[in-house]
Amino acid sequence: MDDIEIIKLFQNRDETAIETTANIYGFRLLRLSFGILKNKEDSEECVNDTYLKTWKSIPPNIPRLFYPYIAKICRHLCFGVLDYKGAQKRNVEIVELSEELMCCIPDKLTNVEYSENEIGSLLSVFLKTLSVEHQRIFLLRYFDCKSIAEVASYCGSSESNVKTTLYRTRSKLKEHLNSEGIIV
C-alpha cells in the first residue's frame, strides 16, 4: 500500500489506517524516537501517540509526503518528553545539536519578520543544492538526531569527514540564509 492510499484511509476514518501505518512505518518511527529519547518505553509511547495525533490531524491536514509528516509529529512528541523529563537537567546530545545549528539558523527573537515556514522553505531550497551524500549526512545528524559516529557508520565514512562535511554545510547554509536577508 502506498502513502496516498494510507492518507485516504485516514481521510475516510478507516481504523486500518493506524494498523497499516504501524506495519509500514512503525519500525522507522521507533528507531527515530529511540535515537532521540534513548529509552524503549518512552519511544514506544511516543510512536503510539504519533498514530493518535496523525489520526486527529488527517483530515483537515492532507500531507504531500506521509512519512516526513508523521516523523515530524513523532520528533515533536519526543522533544516534548525530553523537555518534561529534563526540565532540571539537559540532554547533552540535544544541547550539542542545538548549539551546532544555532550558528546558522536564526531564532525567533533575532528574525521576528520571518516565520518558521519561511525559514523552513529556505532550508528546503538549500538542501536541494547539496549532493545526495551531503543531504543524507545533514538530515541524519539534524533530523534523525544521530551521533557523529552513527552518521559516519551509516554513510561508510570517517567521523572526521562527517564533522568536516557538517561544518562546511552549516557555513553554506548560513551564507544562503544571509543572501536571502536572514541575518544570524
Could you give the topology of this structure?
Layout: H1 3-11, H2 16-37, H3 40-57, H4 66-85, H5 92-102, H6 116-128, H7 132-142, H8 148-155, H9 159-179
Would you mind describing this structure in some detail?
It is built from 9 helices and no strands. It is mainly alpha-helical. It folds into 2 domains: 3-85, Rna Polymerase Sigma Factor, Chain: A (Orthogonal Bundle), CATH 1.10.1740; 92-179, Orthogonal Bundle (Arc Repressor Mutant, subunit A), CATH 1.10.10. The longest helix has 22 residues, at 16-37.
The CATH topology of the largest domain comes to Arc Repressor Mutant, subunit A
* Tally of helical segments: 9
Give the overall average pLDDT: 83
Structural class: mainly alpha
Q: Quote the distance from N terminus to C terminus.
A: 43 Å
User: What is the CATH homologous superfamily assignment of the largest domain?
Assistant: Winged helix-like DNA-binding domain superfamily/Winged helix DNA-binding domain
Number of DSSP strand runs: 0
- Note the beta-strand portion: under 5%
Helix content: over 70%
Instruction: Characterize the overall form.
Output: globular
Q: What is the domain tally?
A: 2
The first-level CATH class name of the largest domain: Mainly Alpha
Sketch the major β-sheet: none
Low-confidence stretches: none
Topology as H/E string? Answer: HHHHHHHHH
**CATH second-level architecture of the largest domain:** Orthogonal Bundle
